[in-house]
Amino acid sequence: MKFTFTPEHIVLNDLLGRDIRYIIPNYQRPYSWDCTGKSERNNQVNIMWDDLFTFFNGEEKGEYFFGSMVLIDKAEREFEVIDGQQRLTTLILLFVGVKCFLNGLGKENYPKEKKEEVKLFIGKAAEAVDDIIYNKSTLGLDIEKKVRIEKSAEFNYDQILEAALKCKEGFVDEKLTNEQRRIAKRYFVNRNYFTDKLKEEFLVSDIFDESCAKRLDAFTKFLQNRLSIVRIKTPNFECAYQIFEILNNRGLPLSNKDLFRNFIIKEFTELKNNDEDTFADLKPVDKWNNLDTNYTLTSDFIGRWVESRKGAQQKYSAFNDLKQHYETYHDEIRIKKIEKFYADIEVDLKSYSLIVSDGFTNSKIGNKIKFLNITGNLRYTQNLLIALFRNLNYAGGDDTNVLDFVTTYEKYVLNILLSPSKRFSNSPIYDAIQALNRGNYDAAKIYFELTSESVANLKDYISGQHKDNYIAKLLISKYIWYQETESDDVVDQTLNFDSATLEHIIPQTPDTNTNWTKNFNRPFLSEMTYKLGNMTLLTKRMNSAARNFDFSIKKQKYQRTLLPLTQELVNTDSIDSSFFESRQERIVDGIIKDLCL
């Protein structure tokens, strides 16, 4: 089979041009992007908005690179989408959000002095959005969506998309399964998320005045003319899927590291060749080996370095952004451009190695970093920490400013994780990084400081019930690491978070005729089962062995672990309600003390 394809660098106006059709085939997974999660894994829409709007508001006037799409060229201006359907669908929903925002404006939102002009703009702007979403006949009487989802044996999601495009409030079908209903809901929730964000940004005291109209017009033109995509057209599925596999499995991360290696060696080789007398002893390969051997130079580091320096998401591949940043360096009399660049890389690589390899001599800070490394959004946390360590010249030891900043950030992260109404956004991270890069530690920390009301709520969240096992496991681990820093034992215990599982001492569904049902009333069991005082950690095998048994049997399983929080249960002859209440108070107080709440 001949392997042929046509890559095109285009802007959104071309991607969604006139009489174009994109078919999402029925073998594709359903629409999966969310705006309601706590991390980048389930909050892609929120992050997309933050990145787009931050770029729009910034000083950079170039293009925003939105990634690539792999398509099968089916017919004249008709394509089957192999890769890129999540971004394509979400872009359509963003423009629908603009239309719904405009359609939702009423006379109460019009400024008195220019009511008719603004009203006219709204009509024309909504019509322009329709031109992006729909193909229209010559007279505009017939319209069709530019993006269509093929009907599968499971369910016709195209009718969901159709309804979302018309600004309807929702889609109800009693025949939907719970999973189908969850997928269908995404179209409306994500569209409404964009609509709400547009209200925040383009209304002033609930009024859509002339300045708001001009700014919204500038934003939509930014999306149409400066949001760029690489559209890869292929003749058949085999070719398209091979490209998809290469892009997703072979690796931008690894190739970025290889390119970086070649770049370092090349630049130092040129430096030596241009001034052999001064750099006679220079060995370019040794420069690379120093970075690769003495530090934890993972494939992710290049992206983390770029974003920690820019205070913004990488624009293209990490290596291309790194080269672009390199061009901001200049030769000086005593030090050359590549030498300055290399020194900066090495400083930040030391910080990155600390963060990912736990090389801290200050155990309190080290344990807090361990905790942050498992709370999600690792990419942004690492970007922030690299910038923090750089700003404070931190090398892993005692530092009250680092401890204070990291603790403040911990509280911020936990508040997002535990609060039902809070959602992760990368904007405060990048804003804080920019402040740190300007040398403004205090301004950076402000982005993460909680109000007194949020602090009170966070205490309540910690002391409350936790039915999400991962969150409960995070908090129990937090307490265990706090215990470690408070202990003066000569033996150190290491918690392996990945291999540990959450154990409910009082089982979630206790067997009848066990001490749980005999010694505790139903209201107490209902209240305490999902609180931290009833939790500890075990290995997966031990957890399975403990199960729902009587406490006397569970104790035998607990004897096999060295974890102090679990071992203390072995030395307990009997347990009653006061035991769990005391344990709850001790664990919650420890976490709150460690967070300085």
Give structural notes.
The protein has 597 residues and is α/β, with parallel strands linked by helices. The chain folds into three domains: 6-250, no CATH class; 261-463, no CATH class; 469-594, no CATH class. 56% of the residues lie in helices and 9% in strands. It is built from 26 helices and ten strands. The protein has helices at residues 12-15, 44-57, 85-103, 115-133, 158-165, 178-202, 210-226, 237-250, 252-274, 284-294, 301-310, 318-326, 337-357, 363-372, 378-392, 400-418, 427-437, 441-446, 452-463, 469-486, 515-519, 522-528, 540-546, 551-558, 564-570, 577-594; strands at 6-11, 21-24, 64-75, 78-83, 134-136, 143-145, 147-149, 227-234, 500-504, 535-539. The strands form three sheets. It has a six-stranded mixed beta sheet, with helices on both faces. A hairpin with a 2-residue loop joins β3 and β4. α9 (252-274) packs antiparallel against α10 (284-294) and α23 (540-546) runs antiparallel to α24. The longest helix is centred in the N-terminal third of the chain and has 25 residues, at 178-202. It is globular. Residues 250-254 have low confidence and may be disordered.
In short:
The protein has 597 residues and is α/β, with parallel strands linked by helices. The chain has helices at residues 12-15, 44-57, 85-103, 115-133, 158-165, 178-202, 210-226, 237-250, 252-274, 284-294, 301-310, 318-326, 337-357, 363-372, 378-392, 400-418, 427-437, 441-446, 452-463, 469-486, 515-519, 522-528, 540-546, 551-558, 564-570, 577-594; strands at residues 6-11, 21-24, 64-75, 78-83, 134-136, 143-145, 147-149, 227-234, 500-504, 535-539. Strand 3 (64-75) and strand 4 form a beta hairpin.
